[in-house]
Amino acid sequence: MEKQLIDQVLRKIKNTEVEGKGNDRVKEIVARLLKDLFYAIDDLNMISEELWIGLDWLNGAGRNHEWGLIYAGTGLEHYMDERMDWEDKQAGLELKTPRTIEGPLYVAGAPESLSYAELETESEPGGERLYMQGTVLDEEGNPVEGALVEVWHCNLKGMYSYFDQTQPKFNLRRSIRTGKDGKYQFKSFVPVGYSCPPNGSTDTLMQLLGRHGSRPAHIHFFITAPGFRKLTTQINIEGDALLGQDFAFADKAGLVPPITRISAEQAKEKGINEGYAS
Length: 278
Ligand code: MBD
Ligand code: FE
Prior knowledge:
alpha+beta; Protocatechuate 3,4-Dioxygenase, subunit A; 2 domains; 5-stranded mixed beta sheet; 3-stranded mixed beta sheet; 7 helices; 12 strands; about 30% helix; binds 3-methylcatechol
């Protein structure tokens, strides 16, 4: 259709805005998104039935609180990360531990402890025991004292506390403060992968795109310390079948730390009486 027609309608809409009223940034963003949408409608010859189907889906996604999942699953959240990586690269900065997306399932205010935490509020039967340790280091490789390592992951049903009301408060969510040595350690279990609610708004979209809505097993981290930029990241589990196929595009080669698997007997010898990996 005529580019002129599009511009004419866009101008009509713009003309209804009152200068000095409203919010300039919102005006700018909405005008741009509308313009891109009008052009997409024209280029792809979208018809009103398709728009109504889309609106219906948008309503459902809101009702289901799935916008955070859609943010991840469309790759939008990953794109925002890649932009930050790009900016860092331009500035000659390279993160020793890569960043990756936050995802929609963080909850602030998890219980805080010094150097060590047990993530289970409620013990999870059947999992593979996991011990993780790490050190928060600055650019020169010196340990950072007083850093806060926030950790969260899902249970063996792939569900996160708070969003899954059957779990106790802050189950599998902890904040660990590093001591002088910058070290943090925690005890938990190896989580399973996550899948979007079956036939929910995100899953439906993924199916229509010929995609799936699953993530490999992962553990989330925020690392914050006074005077430092915040690091948002995750780790995956070596050997996970879904590595490289994360629906949220959040897995990265640099985020699959080595795991040592030992038997229950070996663990016992070490004074740990459960199957153990570190
Ligand atoms: C998750 O657990 C997650 O981490 C992301 C990014 C999206 C959906 C579920
Ligand atoms: Fe997650």
